Every structure is written in structure tokens, then in C-alpha cells.
Amino acid sequence: TLCLLDIKVKEPDFEAMKRGKIVYLPPRFMTVNEASDQLIEAEEARAGGAYIPNKTLCVGLARLGQPDQCIIAGTLEELKEKDFGAPLHCLIICGEVHDMELEALKPYLIDNSKFEVDVEGSLFPRDEPSSKAADDDDVDA
Asked: How far lies 124's CA from each of 6, 7, 48, 55, 106, in Å?
């Protein structure tokens, strides 16, 4: 699910309007951090099971297509702590993810992310030191 995060530009100041003045508030842009926090809070309050904040894979994106774009993948819990920099931000909440999509996300994945990619709890494969060399030595002995 792609979430295009809220942009508030030229929003009237209702307090000033009560006094007969037309004043606009400064522009505000929702961040991936705020969206993550609100989604976690909503899931805790409703317990709808739409996602699991500490397991569901999500991708936070900022300033796509710009030289300073930022792409970070992890769980909602992990993304709410990351710095995405200046706006504009958007958030992807992943559902069923193909192996090729996971491979494409690998460079953007938070180190030691806790996300799970399927109902069986299989974790995304990481490049860990292989113990095959040690196993081969045992066979020769």
C-alpha cells in the first residue's frame, strides 16, 4: 500500500479568522516518522490485524528522483526512529512480496531488521558468514 503523506499548504489560521484576519499557517509536511507513529497507534487502538508494527515490512521514501533521495526499508517500529531528512515523504506498507522485490530492497534494508516476510515467519535471507567451510573440514577429518 502506497501512502502519500499529508501536505498542508495555505491552511487558514482559524484563530486569526475569528478576529477577522485572513492569515495562513506555515506549510507543514507529514514525515515517515509521524506516519509510522500514527499507524502504530491506530493498530494498537483498533487491533485490526492489518499489519504488525514490529514485523511488517515497510519502506520509507523521501525526495524520490532527487540527488539526495532517501530510501529506507524496515518495520514501522524501526522506521519511526530513522532520519529521512526534508520533505516530501511517502510510505509503502508491503503485503505479499516477491523474492525479486526483496532482492531489490536489500540495499535499503536497516541492519538487523526484524521484519518477517510471510505468515510462517521466514526471515529475509541475509549474507551471513557461511559455516560450509567448517563443515567441509569436518568431512575430511
From this structure: 31, 33, 25, 11, 9
At residue 12's C-alpha, the angle toward residues 7 and 16, to 5°, is: 145
CA distance 91 to 33: 10
Determine the 3-state secondary structure of 78 from DSSP. Answer: helix
Structural element, H or E, at residue 108: none
DSSP string computed for 14-45: HHHHHTT---BPPPEE--HHHHHHHHHHHHHH
Q: Are 62 and 70 in contact (CB under 8 A)?
A: yes
d(CA 5, CA 92): 10
Digitized pLDDT (tens) for each residue of the chain, 141 residues in all: 999 998 888 888 899 889 999 899 888 999 999 999 999 999 999 988 888 889 899 999 999 999 999 999 999 999 999 999 999 999 999 988 888 888 899 899 998 888 876 544 444 444 444 444 444 444 444
Cell numbers found for residue 46: 483498533
- The size of the chain, in residues, is 141
What single letter denotes the amino acid at residue 7?
A: I
